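This is your field. Have a critical look at both lines of this record:
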Amino acid sequence: MGGFKAALFVCIGQAASRCKRLASAYIPAMISKMMGKSRAILIATIGLIALGAFSAAAQSIPKSREQITLSYAPLVKMAAPAVVNIYAKRRVRRQGRASLFDDPIFNRLFGDFPFQGFSRERIENSLGSGVIVRSEGLIVTNNHVIDKAQEITVVLSDRREFPATLVVADKRTDIAVLKVDTSGEALPALKLDDSDGLEVGDLVLAIGNPFGVGQTVTSGIVSALARTSVGISDFRSFIQTDAAINPGNSGGALLGMNGKLVGVNTAIYSRDGGSLGIGFAVPSNMVRRIVDSAISGKPLVRPWLSFTGKPVTSEIANALGLVRPVGVLIENVSHKGPGKKAGLRPGDVVVAVGRNDVDDVQALRFRIATRPIGDSVDLKVVRRGELRALQFDLVAPPKDPPRNLTLIKGRNPFAGVTVGNLSPALSEEIGVGAAVDGVIVVQINRRSTAARLGFKPHDIIRAVNGQSIERVNDLNRMTAAPQPNWRVEILRGDRAIEFEVSG
């Protein structure tokens, strides 16, 4: 047994091939000598041999999903070349006043001086990450990384640099698509996975360029799915992960264990700018819709929801006889939309879109927005205690009535606002209620009468001096002549506001 013990310890510390030779030489002799002894000793000894062989084999390249948990190196080696650094430059002009002209004595003596203002131009730089999703040079990143940039540079993992052009910028999901000219060279790219296949507890890798230190890989798990309470963008149903994500990681890859892209890292929860183990990524199913739009060259258009609703609270659940608070309670349904055609009614509770449960309005909107126009989806609806399935057609929102964007001028409370007719298309574009219509404030000039009175973008003008405002022409007619007093009614979100202004 002395020779066997020595060989056993050598086996544990040596390569797999030598371990195999030693084990084959000594195991038969060992078994024959120990046939009459304790079975427990035999099992323990064979276990030690297996442990040695396993330790040696672990140094080889993993061949299966189980083995990959021992090292992420093969995944990183495959995926890292498809993750890039993005440098964006924007020129910012800053208005200011010379200190002499700000002096109150100077102003008292000379009044307003025509040249008291000046402007300075400075360059702002932003750093982020991106993921190559098509070998011909199509790259996804976060919109906030390249927002308002005049110059965008993409740096590959091998340090080659390419100027990039913006193809699609979608602020509502914080996703942008860039294109670089590779002169026909195929770049390494990551495939988009089905993010609906993720489960809480799945292993993920985050790859990006935190703090500009260079490409970095961190590991973690999926901490939560369908996080809709994070107010980062309009369409939100984020993947939450504890993989370390820091400034500079924005736009980088969240990688599944199959080597495919499951999300684009977007934001972190932090008290000091560093990672606290709570990061958020846009799911790949939403990213896919935006990439498809970039490839097709057509504008990004999402399906028309055509109804509004609110989350089911405990009180609502009790009133409706539901076992627990779940789903979205339908409040309004557009009379010409796909919701009406599907048979939706006010008072229905939508509990699922296809195979995916929905717990609030954001989750429902996200599930509809990830589907292509032209398809249809089953809505699971609870009506009077019964579960029903309704077929909901995914159609583009109509552009009727025409927007008729108009700048209001003159002596009235609305001077300085640009307003438009609110169509379903405009509603979906700017993210207001799907069943709301009327005249909406699109833009407000700074230092205008409307700005001083506190008007805000997306305010809906309902009435002026008791007269209903349904179209831009109605507002033009009401503001054509000065009035001694103005009584204004607006809708701001879910809140109705009334106020009076002296003419």
The first helix runs from residue 2 to 13.
